[in-house]
C-alpha cells in the first residue's frame, strides 16, 4: 500500500527550510535548489509543491503569520482576568517585534516578501488584505479603551491604529539591523503607548 503523504505538512517543512536560510544568510540569493537542499528533498519534489520562489515565499509568509497570530492569541488568552485594551494592544504589538528566533525569522521572511511585493501586484495582494484587518483589530481595541474612559475618544481612530502598525514595522526593521536591541524597541513601544493613553 503506498505511503500517504501529508501535503500540508510537507509544504510547511519546505517553508521552514526557507526560514532557516532566511535566518542564516538571507533570501536574496537563495534559489529553489538551495531550499530543496536545505529541506533534504530534490528540486523536482519541491517544484511539485511550489512552482516558483514567489509561490514559496507567499506560502512561507502566510505560514509564519499564522504561527505569529497563534502565539499572540495564546499570550492574550493566558492573561489573567479580562485584559484591558491597552494590555491587549501591548501584547499584540510586542508579539509583532522580532524579539526571539522565531519572530526574527518571520520578520526576515516578511522583509523579503515586501521587497518583492513592491514590484509584484500579485504578491502585494497579501499586504492589501492583511494590513486592513490588523488596523481594524487595533482600532477596535482603541475604541474599547475610549468607551472605558482609558483613552480620549479622538485618539480611537484608524489613523492611530496605523501609527501603531508603522511604529512596530519601523522598530522591527531597526532590531533586524541591530540599530536597536529588542529591549530598546519595547521601551519605545511602551513610551508611545504611555503617551497615547495619557
Automatic annotation (TrEMBL):
It comes from the Bacteria. Residues 31-50 bind DNA. Keywords: DNA-binding, Repressor, Transcription, Transcription regulation. Residues 8-68 form the HTH tetR-type domain. InterPro entries: BetI_C, Homeodomain-like_sf, HTH_TetR, Tet_transcr_reg_TetR-rel_C_sf. PANTHER family: HTH-TYPE TRANSCRIPTIONAL REPRESSOR NEMR (PTHR47506:SF6), TRANSCRIPTIONAL REGULATORY PROTEIN (PTHR47506). This is TetR/AcrR family transcriptional regulator. The lineage of its organism: Bacteria, Bacillati, Actinomycetota, Actinomycetes, Kitasatosporales.
Amino acid at each position: 500500500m503506498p505511503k500517504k503523504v501529508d501535503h500540508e505538512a510537507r509544504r510547511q517543512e519546505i517553508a521552514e527550510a526557507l526560514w532557516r536560510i532566511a535566518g542564516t544568510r538571507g533570501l536574496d540569493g537563495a534559489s529553489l535548489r538551495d531550499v530543496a537542499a536545505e529541506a533534504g528533498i530534490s528540486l523536482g519534489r519541491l517544484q511539485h509543491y511550489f512552482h516558483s520562489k514567489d509561490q514559496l515565499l507567499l506560502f512561507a509568509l502566510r505560514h509564519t503569520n499564522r504561527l505569529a497570530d497563534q502565539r499572540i492569541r495564546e499570550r492574550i488568552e493566558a492573561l489573567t482576568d479580562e485584559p484591558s485594551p491597552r494590555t491587549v494592544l501591548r501584547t499584540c504589538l510586542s508579539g509583532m517585534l522580532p524579539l526571539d528566533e522565531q519572530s526574527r525569522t518571520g520578520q526576515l521572511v516578511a522583509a523579503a516578501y515586501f521587497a518583492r511585493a513592491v514590484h509584484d501586484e500579485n504578491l502585494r495582494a497579501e499586504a492589501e488584505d492583511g494590513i486592513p484587518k490588523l488596523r481594524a483589530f487595533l482600532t477596535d481595541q482603541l475604541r474599547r479603551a475610549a468607551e472605558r474612559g482609558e483613552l480620549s475618544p479622538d485618539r480611537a481612530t484608524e489613523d492611530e491604529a496605523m501609527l501603531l502598525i508603522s511604529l512596530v514595522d519601523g522598530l522591527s526593521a531597526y532590531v533586524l539591523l541591530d540599530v536597536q536591541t529588542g529591549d530598546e524597541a519595547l521601551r519605545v513601544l511602551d513610551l508611545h503607548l504611555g503617551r497615547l493613553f495619557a
